Amino acid sequence: MKILVCISKTPDTTAKIAFTDNNTKFDVNGVQWIINPYDEWYSLVRAIELKEADASTLIHLVTVGAADAEPIIRKALALGGDEAIRVNTDSHDSFYIAAQIAEVARQGGYDLVFTGKETIDYNGSSIGGMVAELLDLPYISLATKFELAGTTATVTREIEGGEEVNEVALPFVLSATKGMAEARIPNMRGIMAARTKPLKVQEPVAVDALTSVSGFGLPPAKAGVKLVDAENVEELVRLLHEEAKSI
């Protein structure tokens, strides 16, 4: 079985958020980059578990990004990926990125394509569905459990107010969320092995981006806290009517 795991580079959750170029670009100065947690902790680790159950399984990683994404790709290889593909382009357009991933998947003939449910910087949650559509494959989103028997998978996913269980035949595309697997850290053996694992760089296919960034903005600063004496009910009611509703 061949599995393609989509990996994205995102800022660490503790990174200071600022913008440049008249608020049209994210300021990368001093930012620590990590593997998008939904890609790493859930989709990649679940793929590794499948490989541990069947040693013939191959795990390929794909990243759409510039050369500065290679350190996080190497970390993903250290965790357990067999080889990686970096599409040499830098874009924030979901359709453009999905088209590049779909082309890699099409060329590789994968049985499964795993993504995280979303990236923690843009929170778009759209790549998986687009990839599936471009490949004309079934798509299951927000998956929390995945079991495989032969060529049929049983997938549990989150829905409003509960869970839904689906059966689907390979190949298909899945986006994973919390519950799919437990986070791991690479060991020294994996780190050393990752240095020599193949990392192929290929040029992007010609696709028109459908969106562009007109500007970023920070959320408004939090207002100060007002403390009201427990005996002063009238003042509390006044604040709720006149000020709280505008927050």
Mind sketching the topology for me?
Elements lengths: L1 E5 L2 E3 L7 E2 L4 E2 L6 E3 L1 H17 L4 E8 L4 H10 L3 E6 L5 H15 L3 E5 L10 H9 L3 E11 L2 E8 L2 E8 L2 E5 L11 H7 L4 E4 L30 H10 L5
Parallel strand pairs: 1-6, 1-8, 6-7, 7-13, 8-12, 9-12
Antiparallel strand pairs: 2-5, 3-4, 9-10, 10-11
Walk me through this protein's architecture.
The protein contains 6 helices and 13 strands. The chain has 247 residues and is an alpha/beta fold. The chain has a single domain, classed as Rossmann fold (3-Layer(aba) Sandwich), CATH 3.40.50. Strands 11-10-9-12-8-1-6-7-13 form a 9-stranded mixed β-sheet, sandwiched between helices. Strands 2-5 form a two-stranded antiparallel ribbon. Strands 3-4 form a two-stranded antiparallel ribbon. α2 crosses α5 and α3 packs across α4. The mean pLDDT is 93.
Nutshell version of this structure?
With 247 residues, this protein is an alpha/beta fold.
Strand content: 25-35%
Distance between the termini: 53 Å
Structural class by sheet pairing and helices: alpha/beta
Q: What general outline do the C-alpha atoms trace? A: globular
CATH homologous superfamily caption? HUPs
Tally of distinct domains: 1
CATH topology: Rossmann fold
What's the helix-strand series? EEEEEHEHEHEHEEEEHEH
Q: Biggest β-sheet: count, sense, barrel?
A: 9 strands, mixed
Model regions low in confidence, pLDDT < 50 over at least 5 residues: none
If you compute it from the alpha carbons, what radius of gyration comes out, rounded to the nearest whole angstrom?
21 Å
Mean pLDDT: 93
Reading off the top of the CATH hierarchy, the class is best stated as Alpha Beta
